[in-house]
Design a protein that fits this description.
Length: 348
């Protein structure tokens, strides 16, 4: 009789170990580990200490193993009915997260999990726990982040669309002896821009700031076809900096019959000095202005973002000379990289 009992334990333990290797469910794996030790007749308190759970959990797993054998270890919540976090629920939640609580009659401008639970209950009739809402947010890939401040374009939607379409048409019909670039300026501060970074819990990294801030300015022109960036540095962001940028473009693209410069409506781009220079001295250049407050339409904005991410944000430089050396080094490496990629595309 004892041999039959020991043989049964051997087969049960073998089956449990095979289940443990195959499962990816962490909760099920814990129950299987508990069951293996139960089969070995270990004390519940010792099992609980080994696994890191309560003694009541060990007793519950042991009862399920005795009453329903190995099948009793499976999650029986599957028989509770339809899943609440189905595709319809998650799709509705994805649409709501992109909106504001004010759109649903609440005064609070930002979402909380409790508000999401309340709104989803009104819209879908499905009531979930706050913890379940956390799982739903993870399922749709939602994250907590800082919104990007924007300014609305004062133009009508029709006028804005007409101007953007005209610029896109200009790019599409550009001839071989014509060049199109996107131009903009960027501020470089000696006091570093503070950005998010990974750090251990309970420890906050420090960024040493010189205290007395200094500024330098870069005017840049991005060729969207080749990715090449032409830059000019200055101590002031004024019309002189912009004119030196245009002169640099004339030197860089001396063979071009026409250079179209797409840019925003910053005042230095349309000053009287600039207008006179473009009319008489810089005749090969045509200024094409974007609609007001439309930074997403200016291709060079991504370059400036990468510059801040790679160099200026949380930077350790104590002098402006060191910082600008790092800035120019990054931009030179970037130009070499995009030039190589462009040659590879052309050769292919």
């Amino acid at each position: 009789m004892s041999r039959m009992v020991s043989r049964r334990r051997f087969y049960v333990k073998g089956a449990l170990r095979r289940m443990l290797k195959k499962t990816n469910d962490k909760r099920l794996s814990i129950r299987i580990r508990i069951a293996i030790m139960v089969v070995d007749d270990r004390k519940p308190s010792r099992i609980a200490s080994t696994v890191g759970c309560a003694v009541s959990t060990v007793n519950r797993v042991a009862d399920r193993l005795r009453e329903h054998s190995i099948e009793g270890l499976m999650d029986r919540r599957e028989d509770n009915g339809d899943l609440k976090l189905d595709e319809a629920f998650l799709g509705q939640l994805r649409e709501i997260v992109d909106q504001s609580p004010r759109d649903f009659g609440y005064q609070r401008p930002t979402w909380t999990r409790e508000l999401l639970v309340a709104v989803m209950r009104k819209l879908t009739g499905v009531c979930v726990h706050v913890g379940t809402m956390s799982r739903a947010l993870r399922k749709i890939g939602a994250r907590r982040g800082r919104p990007r401040p924007t300014v609305g374009c004062p133009w009508s939607k029709v006028a804005k669309t007409r101007r953007i379409n005209a610029i896109n048409k200009l790019r599409a019909n550009c001839r071989r002896n014509e060049i199109i670039v996107y131009e903009d300026e960027v501020d470089i501060h000696l006091n570093p821009k503070i950005g998010m970074d990974w750090m251990n819990r309970g420890h906050q990294k420090e960024v040493l700031t010189p205290g007395q801030n200094q500024k330098r300015y870069l005017a840049g022109a991005l060729n969207p076809d080749t990715g090449e960036l032409t830059i000019v540095e200055g101590s002031k962001k004024n019309s002189d900096l912009f004119l030196r940028m245009l002169e640099s473009l004339l030197q860089r693209y001396s063979d071009a019959k026409r250079i179209y410069v797409i840019l925003d409506n910053y005042r230095i781009h349309s000053s009287r000095i600039v207008q006179a220079a473009v009319l008489h001295r810089l005749k090969k250049i045509s200024l094409v202005f974007l609609p007001p407050y439309c930074p997403n339409e200016n291709k060079i904005e991504r370059v400036w973002k990468d510059l801040h991410d790679e160099v200026t944000r949380n930077h350790p430089h104590a002098t402006m000379v060191g910082l600008m050396q790092a800035v120019h080094r990054y931009l030179r490496c970037r130009n070499r990289r995009v030039e190589t990629a462009h040659r590879t595309r052309v050769a292919a």
